[in-house]
Amino acid sequence: MAASIKDREFLAVIGDEDTVTGLLLAGIGHVNQQQKRNFLIVDSKTQVNVIEDAFQTFTERKDIAILLINQHVAEKIRPTVDKYQQAFPALLEIPSKDHPYDPAKDSILKRVQKLFGE
């Protein structure tokens, strides 16, 4: 049976240390009974397959409503991000302290522009 929208009660985040720390301080952190976290801190040593695995895990979880990902991290797994088409969890690319937001790279914005013929 598919998860109900009301079962999706968490945010997940994949991002740099400052972004994840800020969001954890804001209260989004969660560790479930299987010791699975709803966040991944990415640094220069984080391998692409680790980021892709976290993205896959978070997008398959039925308790996550929104997945926030720093845009510069999304660039590392751009083909995977561009393939993602589900409504839930909603995927939002966000800026980080050191990397400003670039609308030209946002997969969701590109899809919307294509939809409206821009």
From TrEMBL:
Protein localization: Vacuole membrane
Domain of life: Eukaryota
Recorded topology in the membrane: Peripheral membrane protein
Location, primary (coarse class): membrane
CC terms in the record's Gene Ontology section: fungal-type vacuole membrane; proton-transporting V-type ATPase, V1 domain
Coiled coil stretches, renumbered: none
Keywords in alphabetical order: Hydrogen ion transport, Ion transport, Membrane, Transport, Vacuole
A GO MF label: proton-transporting ATPase activity, rotational mechanism
UniProt subunit comment: V-ATPase is a heteromultimeric enzyme composed of a peripheral catalytic V1 complex (components A to H) attached to an integral membrane V0 proton pore complex (components: a, c, c', c'', d, e, f and VOA1). V-ATPase is a heteromultimeric enzyme made up of two complexes: the ATP-hydrolytic V1 complex and the proton translocation V0 complex.
Job description of the protein: Subunit of the V1 complex of vacuolar(H+)-ATPase (V-ATPase), a multisubunit enzyme composed of a peripheral complex (V1) that hydrolyzes ATP and a membrane integral complex (V0) that translocates protons. V-ATPase is responsible for acidifying and maintaining the pH of intracellular compartments.
Family the UniProt entry places it in: Belongs to the V-ATPase F subunit family.
Cited NCBIfam families: V_ATP_synt_F (TIGR01101)
Matching PANTHER family: V-TYPE PROTON ATPASE SUBUNIT F, VACUOLAR ATP SYNTHASE SUBUNIT F
Protein name: V-type proton ATPase subunit F
UniProt lineage: Eukaryota, Fungi, Dikarya, Basidiomycota, Agaricomycotina
